[in-house]
């Protein structure tokens, strides 16, 4: 982690606020660069007078949006048709599940993108299903901008307030992240359990239909 911090410091010293934007852009596509380290550090640097608060926020948010569009592009490249073909070859799921997921995203995609940008571990990944669903680019950008703006402003300001204690922000976010990961793990277990039960019911139903009638 210290190596990442040193690299970010050097980037900000050389480029100023645009360096923060580059670091956040990379954070979107390269998770080992965590925003909970970059942004509070940027806030601390603002407190020292080396960076401008508004410029830092603007560049950080621009980096978030550009990085999100890159992952959106990955999702669009993957596409619904390719995902359906992949699903049909997988155990427990099929193309109909992809259609159901896309239908859900059609209804709740905007909220998913907005709130997803506020959840560690999900912040970057939420852009991929948006791309798969071909969510309207302007709509995607605006909701990404809103969610990222809140996240960036909060972490930069906390770093500004805490000064040389800015690393405490990462500690708090880590605790928050652990709770999120537990919730996600429980949800995945519940989903897998549901899919296994559904698969077993389908097998029994198929066996009943294929059973020869009694004479």
Automatic annotation (TrEMBL):
Cellular localisation: Cell membrane
Domain VTT: 33-160
Pfam families: VTT_dom
InterPro entries recorded: DedA_domain, VTT_dom
Membrane spanning stretches: 7-26, 57-80, 140-159, 179-196
Chief location: membrane
Membrane topology (UniProt): Multi-pass membrane protein
Protein keywords: Cell membrane, Membrane, Transmembrane, Transmembrane helix
GO cellular component, one term: plasma membrane
Family per similarity comment: Belongs to the DedA family.
PANTHER family: ALKALINE PHOSPHATASE LIKE PROTEIN, UNDECAPRENYL PHOSPHATE TRANSPORTER A
The name this protein goes by in its record: Membrane protein DedA, SNARE-associated domain
Species of the source: Corynebacterium cystitidis DSM 20524
Lineage of the organism: Bacteria, Bacillati, Actinomycetota, Actinomycetes, Mycobacteriales
């Amino acid at each position: 982690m210290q190596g990442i911090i040193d690299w970010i410091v050097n980037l900000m010293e050389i480029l100023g606020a645009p360096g923060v934007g580059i670091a956040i852009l990379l954070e979107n596509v390269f998770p080992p660069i965590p925003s909970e380290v970059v942004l509070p550090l940027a806030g601390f640097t603002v407190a020292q007078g080396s960076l401008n608060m508004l410029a830092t926020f603007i560049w950080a948010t621009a980096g978030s949006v550009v990085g999100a569009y890159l992952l959106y592009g990955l999702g669009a490249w993957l596409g619904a048709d390719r995902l359906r073909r992949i699903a049909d070859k997988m155990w427990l799921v099929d193309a109909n599940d992809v259609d159901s997921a896309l239908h859900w995203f059609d209804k709740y995609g905007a909220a998913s993108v907005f709130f997803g940008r506020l959840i560690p571990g999900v912040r970057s990944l939420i852009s991929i299903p948006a791309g798969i669903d071909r969510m309207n680019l302007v709509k995607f950008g605006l909701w990404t901008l809103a969610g990222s703006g809140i996240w960036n402003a909060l972490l930069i300001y906390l770093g500004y307030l805490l000064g040389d204690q800015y690393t405490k922000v990462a500690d708090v976010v880590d605790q928050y992240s652990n709770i999120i990961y537990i919730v996600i793990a429980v949800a995945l277990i519940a989903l897998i359990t549901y899919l296994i039960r559904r698969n077993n019911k389908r097998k029994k139903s198929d066996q009943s239909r294929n059973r020869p009638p009694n004479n």
